[in-house]
Amino acid sequence: MNTLNNDWLKAMQLEHPLVIAGPCSAETEEQVLDIAQQLKDSDATVFRAGVWKPRTRPGNFEGIGALALPWLQRVKKETGLLIAIEIANATHAKLALEHDVDILWIGARTTVNPFAVQEIADTIAGTDKIVLVKNPVNPDLALWLGAVERFQKAGIKKLGVIHRGFSTYQKTKYRNNPNWQIPIEVKNRFPNLPIICDPSHICGNRTNLLDVSQTALDLQFDGLMIETHNNPDKAWSDAKQQITPERLKEMTEELTIRKQTFEADESKQALKKLREEINIIDDELITLLAQRMAVSDKIGAEKKKQNVAILQQERWNSIIDKSIIKSEPLGLSKEFVSKIYKLIHQESIMHQEQVFKQ
Ligand code: PEP
Ligand code: MN
Fold first, then answer.
1. Predicted local confidence at residue 263, as pLDDT
2. pLDDT for position 23
3. Distance 255 CA to ligand 1 centre (A)
4. Vertex 209 angle, CA 207 and 213, to 5°
5. Which terminal CB of the chain, N or C, has fewer other CB atoms within 10 Å?
6. What's residue 135's pLDDT?
7. What single string gives the DSSP state of each residue in 165-190?
8. What's residue 345's pLDDT?
9. Distance, CA of 260 to CA of 270 (rounded, Å)
10. Pick the CATH number of 265-357 from 1.20.1740.10, 1.20.59.10, 2.70.98.10, 3.30.1390.10
11. Mutate which of 24, 57, 227 to test ligand 1's pocket (most atoms within 8 Å of Cβ)?
12. What's CA 113's distance to the chain center, in Å?
């Protein structure tokens, strides 16, 4: 995995992050060509369209299928855009090769399935296709990277990943939770592996698209894949999250591309000072946490003496409530404070259990 590189992306010589745009699904030849024509003078250099659609429930539109592949070939010929589709099995892979599709992406529901990934990898082995692996629906980094590895082992050199968020049982403001720490970990482990954000499937609506795209650029993602339709409200799939090519152009204008590092000396100095401040605060945090656990150990000893249960739910609820009330005016979100306190509570219980066992 240490030979993963971004040569294919560099070869595109783009002056901005890669933009992949196009409809969730190819619906008709006219729709596909109309969208592609409108995208011609945008930042998009790759046209996406779903040909086989993985739908959660049966009975919904499941894609046009292979019939749509010649439409995409027309897009490539008439607009010069590269074409990208999702493939989910060996048959799709074979048809994509036959129709000269440039970029093949593995959907979130396929990445979870090593059998499917392997049969696709075997089918396209040794070709010079660009393969982008979407994260699996569940937040499992090893499963995501495992799929990338299968393609690498099959001799695919032009690899990248797409972050499209993770499914959660509890509904949040996102259709798929971004869990940014997971793509950040991918970047830490494989700094040269291109990583593209799919804000459309993260958001599930148009409202947060700009925000999520900006976060991706702030985190130095290499590109964006944004679902774009000539009549979004009437789209046959994912209508709520698609935008017009016009809106896409506005959005890419509104986005700020961040520099990789600070150039001005003044900023460098300021950053150095701020980082030193952070280091000091982090040291204090660790010391305070250790002190807190030491007090917790003493409480554990008292509970043991009196044979009282470790878990005191009411006391704990009141700690969390008070902390949230105190931290909100300080600009800390309720979610953050309750997450931190839950972790502290768990650690505290573990400490007291150790005391009980002694
Ligand atoms: C898509 O890109 O249209 C799609 C089905 O995405 P995902 O696999 O991320 O759900
Ligand atoms: Mn979609």
1. 80
2. 98
3. 23
4. 155
5. C
6. 98
7. -B--SS--SSSSB--THHHHHHHHH-
8. 93
9. 17
10. 1.20.59.10
11. 24
12. 18
Ligand 1 lining (C-beta closer than 6 Å)? 24, 50, 54, 86, 107-109, 134, 164, 201
**Token representation of residue 71:** 């439409």
pLDDT of residue 327: 93
Residue from 27, 52, 137, 201 to probe ligand 1 pocket by mutation (most atoms less than 8 Å from CB)? 201
Note the pLDDT tens digit of each residue in 312-322. Answer: 888 888 998 99
Domains in the chain: boundaries: 7-254, 265-357
Amino acid identity of residue 341, one-letter, is: Y
CA–CA gap between residue 238 and residue 227 (Å, rounded): 9
pLDDT of residue 18: 97
Q: Which two tokens stand for residue 285?
A: 């945090």
- Residues 57-92 have pLDDT tens digits of 899 999 999 999 999 999 999 999 999 999 999 999
Q: Tokens 């593995």 belong to which residue? A: 106
Using the mean position of ligand 2's atoms as its centre, give its distance from the Cα of residue 227 in Å: 7
Distance 53 CA to ligand 2 centre (A): 8
Residues of the chain predicted below pLDDT 70: none
Lookup: tokens for 8: 């294919």
What gap in Å lies between CA 232 and CA 284, rounded to an integer?
A: 51
Answer CATH for 7-254 from 3.40.50.300, 1.20.1270.20, 3.20.20.70, 3.30.450.40: 3.20.20.70
Give how far Cα 76 sits from Cα of 72, 81, 99, Å. Answer: 6, 5, 11
Task: Read off the pTM.
Answer: 0.82
